Amino acid sequence: MSDLVTQNVEGQIDISPLAIARLASHAVDLYIIIEYGTRISTVASSVINAVRFYVEKATGLAVMQIHVHVQGVHVSEDPKVNN
Known about the structure:
Layout: E1 5-7, E2 13-15, H1 17-25, E3 28-35, H2 40-59, E4 66-74, H3 79-82
Parallel strand pairs: 3-4
Antiparallel strand pairs: 1-2
């Protein structure tokens, strides 16, 4: 995570005041890798809803835009295939 957004020991996300100011003027860009076989649109929609909820709850600001960028697809190795 960046200096503006950190994760504490309990797993909660802390957002600095500077990050809040940037949220007010910029869109949120998320870069994710999804598991092969999952629906990209379903994952993106779920991520958008979760991020919007938690950012608005943490900051009290309305999030105008959230962009989800799929950076790649993860393919799990099936142990049965290698035998």
